[in-house]
């Protein structure tokens, strides 16, 4: 896992924030953060889980670029992080923006993996907010697991995290902030 909040300048962080949270980006309602899956256990619901809707903007899905903002965010955020940390990317599987609104709860959304095969995940926090990202000790192997918390990462504008995509992870909704926005990229 890598956590880095110094790979972009303050001016670059502000430009990314202003673009994503500005009036041009269209957001679409998703009623859940991930699909519920009791077959492959790509997501796990437990007593600490409470689903909450989120807004998304798909940048890229498999080989199809779906947003005019993809190239800018890919080159000016994702590639800069990869280059700094000498990480290879052969294919972006999916790139999207997520925006979660407040929810008054201490529960988290469904722990999940984005894909059930080896991949990596890059998350970039667009704005300062509460609503941490939770990473669990357990990795997906097709069986149901009791999850134990490994790390809780607070969102700060310009911070990025990189981790093994088979690691169960979950967002929490903000309580104090108006929203929590991230760039989410799954890749191999």
Question: Tags for this entry?
Answer:
single chain; 188 residues; alpha+beta; Jelly Rolls; 8-stranded antiparallel sheet; 3-stranded antiparallel sheet; 11 strands
Entry summary:
The protein is an alpha+beta fold and 188 residues long. The protein contains two helices and eleven strands; from the N terminus they run E-H-E-E-E-H-E-E-E-E-E-E-E.
Description of the molecule:
This protein has helices at residues 10-20, 70-85, and strands at residues 2-4, 28-30, 54-61, 64-65, 92-100, 120-125, 133-139, 149-153, 160-164, 167-171, 180-187. It has 188 residues and is an alpha+beta fold. The chain has one domain (2-187): Jelly Rolls (Sandwich). Strands 1, 2, 3, 4, 5, 6, 9 and 11 form an eight-stranded antiparallel sheet that branches. The protein has a three-stranded antiparallel sheet with strand order 8-7-10, with no helix packed on it. A hairpin with a 2-residue loop joins strand 3 and strand 4 (64-65). The relative contact order is 0.26. The mean pLDDT is 92.
The secondary structure category is alpha+beta
CATH class: Mainly Beta
Level of helix content?
Answer: 10-25%
Ranges where pLDDT stays below 50 over 5 or more residues in a row are: none
Terminal residue distance: 15 Å
Provide the residue-averaged pLDDT.
Answer: 92
CATH topology descriptor: Jelly Rolls
The quaternary state of the protein chains shown equals: single chain
What's the story with the biggest beta sheet? Answer: 8 strands, antiparallel
What amount of the residues lies in strands?
25-35%
Helix count from the secondary structure assignment: 2
Count of domain modules? 1
CATH H-tier superfamily: q2cbj1_9rhob like domain
- C-alpha geometry: globular
Radius of gyration: 15 Å
By CATH, the architecture is named: Sandwich
Number of strands: 11
């Amino acid at each position: 896992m890598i956590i880095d909040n110094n790979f972009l300048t303050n001016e670059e962080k502000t430009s990314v924030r202003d673009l994503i949270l500005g009036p041009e980006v269209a957001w679409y309602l998703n009623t859940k953060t991930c699909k519920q899956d009791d077959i492959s256990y790509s997501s796990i619901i437990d007593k600490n889980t409470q689903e909450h809707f989120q807004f998304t903007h798909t940048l890229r899905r498999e080989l199809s670029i779906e947003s005019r903002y993809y190239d800018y965010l890919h080159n000016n955020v994702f590639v800069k992080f990869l280059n700094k940390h000498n990480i290879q990317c052969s294919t972006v599987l999916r790139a999207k923006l997520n925006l979660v609104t407040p929810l008054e709860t201490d529960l988290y959304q469904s722990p999940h993996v984005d894909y059930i095969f080896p991949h990596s995940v890059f998350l970039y926090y667009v704005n300062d907010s509460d609503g941490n990202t939770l990473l669990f000790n357990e990795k997906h192997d097709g069986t149901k697991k009791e999850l134990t918390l490994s790390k809780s990462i607070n969102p700060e504008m310009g911070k990025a995290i990189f981790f093994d995509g088979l690691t169960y992870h979950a967002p929490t909704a903000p309580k104090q902030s108006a929203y929590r926005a991230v760039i989410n990229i799954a890749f191999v």
